Amino acid sequence: EFVAWCHELPEHEPPVWLGLPPNAETLVLVQKGQEFVADVRRLRSLMDDDDDDDVEAGAQTSGVPAYMRHIDTVATAFEQQLPQALPLLSLPSPSSSLVQTPLFRVIERETRVAHKLLTLVHRDLHALRRVCRGETKQTNHVRNLLRDFNANVVPRAWLQYTVPRGCSLSRWVTDFAMRVDHIRELSSCIESATAQTMERVQSVRVWLGGLLFPEAFVTATRQSVAKQLECSLEELHVGLSPFSENGVAFMVSGLRVEGAEWTRGLVVNEGSASHVQVGYLSWSKTQSEDGVVVPVYLNGDRSLLLFEVRVPVEHSVDAHKVVQRAVAIVAA
User: Fold this and answer.
1) Does the pLDDT value for residue 111 go beyond 80?
2) Cα 133–chain centre separation
3) Distance from first CA to last CA of the chain, Å, rounded?
4) Which of 138, 179, 205, 316 could form a disulfide with 253 if both were Cys (CB 3.0 to 4.6 A apart)?
């Protein structure tokens, strides 16, 4: 009977048998498709490099090559999309209590690095446009920019913070413009702050995944709470909730729960992602043993773990199923 039962089993074994969501195969195919598109872009870039000599040889009779005209148009659009400047924070004296606060140092570093990167991007775009219009000769750096723009990949000099694997150039520019605007809001929030830096940061929504160094921000919140509660860092436990609770909490936005929906507790779904309008990041000396530990990743590729947090689940949900379905929270 057992052998007959084995023969009656379907040839196609659903992913649910392994504790995976029903659309696990679709997610794998999507990832393979993204890798295939990235390989095609790299192959196209190599083929265009081989044809550069022929194109430049005919440029004297036909004018500017077509791909340079296209890159000129793209670079112009990028310059219009990006903010023109990002003002730096005015630093007080080194002995000031404001400089000694962890949150101020983190936001000042975010502003300084974003300002430097924005200046570099605008300078490269300007040099690229001049070469594409025939106003100056190519350099090795501009030649690399031409190759990267033609392949729609982010130049290596611009990758100064963690981005998802396979991120295209156009997507990176749009994302970076949003990050600069968000950092400007944070810097203006504490521009006139005195010693109440933590209270000022608590009053605004922080796009956790939109920071250049989100790990440093999480650490700074922990240090600030430890100073306020007069305890060590090891005594504090992180908490994350979609509802405001009593105590010290920081509002974070842009969170996405993959594989579950988050109301009062987690409810496992078919594998789709649900968005959390605002979450509350908190630190406390006590930690509830209820619920299940869920990882919080920076990007959807889950390559960088920010921290782990214990999240409550609904009474009708098995906590082991949350782990089997690889439920996770994504910050960006």
Assistant:
1) yes
2) 34
3) 52
4) 205
CB 226 within 8 A of CB 236: yes
Q: Lay out the sheet containing 255-262: strands in order across.
A: 266-276, 255-262, 328-330, 292-297, 305-311
Cα–Cα distance between 134 and 77 in angstroms, integer? 19
Q: Which residue, among 306, 303, 295, has the nearest Cα to 329 in the 3D structure?
A: 295
Longest dimension (CA), the chain: 83
d(CA 229, CA 247): 11
The pTM of the full predicted model, rounded to 2 decimals, is 0.78
Q: What is the 3-state secondary structure (H, E, C) of the chain?
A: CHHHHHHCCCCCCCHHHHCCCCCHHHHHHHHHHHHHHHHHHHHHHHHHHHHHHHHHHCHHHHCCCHHHHHHHHHHHHHHHHCCCCCCCCCCCCCCCCCCCCHHHHHHHHHHHHHHHHHHHHHHHHHHHHHHHCCCCCCCHHHHHHHHHHHHCECCHHHCCCCCCCCCEHHHHHHHHHHHHHHHHHHHHHCCCCCCCHHHHHHCCCEEHHHCCCHHHHHHHHHHHHHHHHCCCHHHCEEEEECCCCCCCEEEEECEEEEEEEECCCEEEEEEEEEEECCEEEEEECCCCCCCEEEEEECCCCCCCEEEEEEECECCCCCHHHHHHCCCEEECC
- Directed axis angle between helix 169-189 and helix 102-132, to 10°? 140
Q: Is the pLDDT of residue 93 over 70?
A: no
Question: Can you tell me the distance from the alpha carbon of 95 to that of 91, in angstroms, rounded to the nearest whole number?
Answer: 11
CA 47 to chain centre: 31
Top-confidence residue, 28 or 235: 235
Radius of gyration of the chain from Cα atoms? 25
Residue 292 has a pLDDT of: 87
Q: Nearest-CA neighbor of 112 among 44, 187, 165?
A: 187
Q: What is the mean pLDDT of residues 279-286?
A: 87
Main-chain phi, psi angles of 266, to 5 degrees = -75, 140
Separation of alpha carbons 242 and 114, rounded Å: 29
Instruction: Quote the CA–CA distance of 30 and 36 in Å, as a whole number.
Output: 10
